[in-house]
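Entry 12.
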Amino acid sequence: MASFAGLDLLATAVVVLDDEFVVRYANPAAENLLTAGARSLIGQPFLGFFAERAELERSLEDARVIHWDYSARNVTYVRTGRQPVPLSCTVTRIDSFGMALLAELRPISEQLRIEREARMESEQQANRELIRNLAHEIKNPLGGLRGSAQLLEGELELSALGRARIHELREYTQVIIKEADRLQTLMDRMLTPHRAPRLEPLGMHEVLERVRSLVRAEFGVEIVRDYDPSLPDILGDREQLIQAVLNIARNAAQVGSENVAFRTRAVRQVTILKRRYKLALELQVIDDGPGVPEEIQDRIFNPLVSGREGGTGLGLSLAQTFVHYHHGVIEFESRPGRTIFRILLPIR
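Predicted 3D structure (tokens):
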């Protein structure tokens, strides 16, 4: 099996099948997942490992004859005397070295995470385009609205109205001008993330220390540090990463969390946005606040969605955009008293 030696390095479980769907190769990851040595797997019928044999056989036939990739969910790996294991199985026709099919096996939880990341990336791209178009459409009439209010305020000085009445009307024009300025600032923030990142080597802990000082100055909240000192530098845009982490930490401070923590670790052999990386940085922002309201958890990264009174709903959307620019992802889990936002960034 020297021809498949490169598959030994994969963290994904892979087995190679012949035309009779008999296992002819299993990499070390497959041995770990199936809790069986390669010698005991090779020569065995692949279908014999699973509960859904008839359904799986039809799909394998389709993959072999029609040349299409088959993805199966809820394929159950059956082990004598042990709990069944739900797996995702993707089969690809290879037609090389006398073999027919290559099957990738993943635990269902990992497959669901990969699919969720892909769905979030697609939704984020659509949201960014929508927001950019919306912001451009709103900016032009805002300028006219503000200019008209300024002209009206100038005309008040030339009017024959009494001083008290002029002062009262000027208050109204000031409201229009200030609200137009506030909306203008909001539109500018919506358009800001479309700048491509300026990549340079930087230490993530330097970014986190900057965020700590900003949060302490603004909210008086001390952030506990749990850093992995062995983390190497990453390639990143300093300002974008500061803003991304700051938006998450600010959310924690604004909802009244008493304890906020930054935790960094190195993770190995991880899949991020459908790509496999040997090494990645994991940053966790942990707080003990009330948590993300359950009714908005599936939309929390969408623009203009906020669980806080008076919130713009842009902070997490911008954070996700900046992290995506670095080929990373943001995930979270939340319940009252404990919320964890987790940023994964590849280390190249």
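Annotation: The radius of gyration is 28 Å. The mean pLDDT is 82.
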